Amino acid sequence: MKWLRDNLFAGWINTIVTLGLALLLVKVLPSLVDWAFLDAVWRPDSKACRAGAGACWGFISEKHRFILFGTYPYDEHWRPGAATAILLGLWIFSALRMSWRWWLTLVWLAGLALIGTLMWGGVLGLAYVENERWGGLILTLLLTTFGIAAAFPLAILLALARRSSMPVIQALAVGFIELVRGVPLISLLFMASVMLPLFLPQGVSIDKLLRAQIAMILFASAYLAEVVRGGLQAIPKEQYEAADALGLGYWQRTLSVVLPQALRISVPPLVNTFIGFFKDTSLVVVIGLFDLLSTVKVALNEPAWSGFGVEAYVFAAVVYFVFCFAMSLYSRRFERSHKGVTG
Amino acid sequence: MHNTVANLEERRIASGFSFLAREAGFEIGESAFLRYSASDSYLRALAVGLSNTLSVALIGIVVATVLGASIGLFRLSKNFLLRTLAGAYVEFIRNSPLLVQLFFWYAVITEVLPHPRAALEPLPGFFLTNRGIFFPAPGSTPALEGFNFVGGLALSPEFATLLAGLSIYTAAFIAEIVRAGVLAIERDQWDAAHALGLTRRQALRHVVLPQSLRVIVPPMASQYLNLTKNSSLAVAIGYPDLVSIANTTINQTGQAIEGVAIIMAVYLTISLSISAFMNWYNARIMRR
Question: What percent of chain A has pLDDT over 70?
């Protein structure tokens, strides 16, 4: 009773707000539930969908294989499926603090080799599948994973360069970081897809996936560099002096004293940057790669299923939400459990 | 460098910006300020794109700020229902990609809203249709004529989608900034203001808000920048912003390097101006 009074009916303005919102919920929620569940059509039958009043989840039941795996050969769908599972396993394993050891790199290399074997095939009796046919969820996850994996070392170098005492190196780092952060990701993707080919020797061509990946890596590295720089700035000067007093050189000091501490305090903002980057991979739809969002969009092009965009994009939003929300919960828990240690 | 020259020669692309004076030859769906027809130059087409980018970004910044500040304050409300709904809004919007949200709103406008003949009229003179949103302007009200509305002010489905998507998305981030800004002011500050005999309103106006602004302004500036850069997603839903028109220009002329350079130069200028303005504003607040 006291909770009710404090949280819903404290004062007359509060009471009016509560009643107003409650009225709104009572009016909106039932029709939303009707649309999404009670009147929804779950069978993959577009005629029933058009006749019914509710949501057409039948679109998802019909197209889920295409949405998840793109144009990968239908009979081989277990391969991107297994690759997705392995990749998610690697991510979850890396989130546990007990696995933050040097051998984690080996685990990743082994995992990625396995994923590459599964996806490309051509060995062990697996049919070869060229990467133009990769698509769907696994492409989104691979773009994110390789983007971050390659951007991270680059970001650390950039952050160190920006704090360097050598003016030329510092200016180059500042210039690169500000340039990349000042322009939209789309312009970098355009640069990679229409401009890059002009700079290559004749006869050399890099495929579209790799070009987009390069643009995403440059983009991510600039944002991650700023996060790492924030972490470096938070390290007290005494740490540097103590390392110097021990007679450590620049790289020894950086690698074994400063960076480990800086990275540890940067985990929450790093995870937030990962979330942003994961969401941004959806932009490759603009240059015609088949990530999760593109496969949803392409699936809608079939005349029988056109006009169910609302359902399709709600589904896409929910898939992205599950990943992003999990990462954001992790970041918040990490922050809470570390307050006592670093604060 | 040698490779580039050879590539350009092979594709018969003349480098340089002389193409800007040539006739563009394509129509543009809508133009915020400038008059434009297909016989105008590429330069004018790009200027139309820039004005479209700026108009959606400026209106978006205003809407996102008002919406975001309200939701941020709602999250701090004593009312359980209000703060829970505001929290759910922030979590759901922040954790799905803007592009998905843009496609979603575009589907809502073009698939769910009715034809002009069966337009929804939530307020007198306001019409929601799958051909756009119409509302009254001083001296002119929208009226159904044939298959569409004429008169008043109109937002095309693309503009309405982009404005709604950008504002709703950015508002979720602004809400968190405002909430953090208010929370950063310690309880003692309120108590001290009350002890001086200030009312709650006066305390907010003269004690809490000025201090919160110091915390709020810098991250707010980067949200405004993000909104402006994100308006480039217009190309995915067919709103003729700068990127979309530069893209068409690149496809027609093959001037990829120049086209991308123009996009980047324009956005860098916008970014640097917004951050310069915000630094000036920030310095002014700090001095007070």
Answer: 97
Read off the pTM: 0.89
DSSP-based helix, strand, coil % in chain B, nearest 5: 70, 5, 25
Residue ranges, chain A, pLDDT below 70: 202-205, 338-343
Interface confidence (ipTM) of the complex: 0.88
The answer to whether B111 and B130 are in contact (CB under 8 A) is yes
Domain that holds residue B137: 78-170
CB pair distance less than 8 Å for B111 and A310: yes
| Minimal-distance CA residue of chain A relative to B271 | A182
Other beta carbons within 10 angstroms of residue B281's beta carbon come to: 15
Any domain includes B159: yes
Q: Which two tokens stand for residue B171?
A: 């508002």
The per-residue pLDDT for range B244-288, each reduced to its tens digit, is 999 899 888 888 888 889 999 999 998 888 878 877 887 787 766
pLDDT in tens, A192-206: 888 777 777 766 667
Q: Which domains does chain A have, with CATH numbers?
A: 39-72+129-342 (1.10.3720.10)
Residue B161 in any domain: the answer is yes
Whether A184 and B229 lie within 8 Å, measured CB to CB: yes
Record: contact B104-A314, CB cut-off 8 A: yes
Rounded to an integer, what distance in angstroms lies between the CA atom of residue B31 and that of residue B38?
12
Nearest-neighbour CA in chain B from A2: distance (Å): 13
Rounded to a whole number of angstroms, the distance from the CA of A290 to the nearest CA of chain B is: 14
Structural domain includes residue B23? no
Which residues does chain A have within 8 Å of residue B111's beta carbon, measured at their own beta carbons?
307-310
CA separation for the pair A212, A208 (Å, rounded): 6
Instruction: Mark yes or no for CB contact B267/A198 under 8 Å.
Output: no
- Cα–Cα distance for residue pair A252/A234, rounded to 1 Å: 19
Q: Which residues of chain B neighbour A279 with C-beta distances below 8 Å? A: 96-98
Residue B254 is assigned to a structural domain of this protein? no
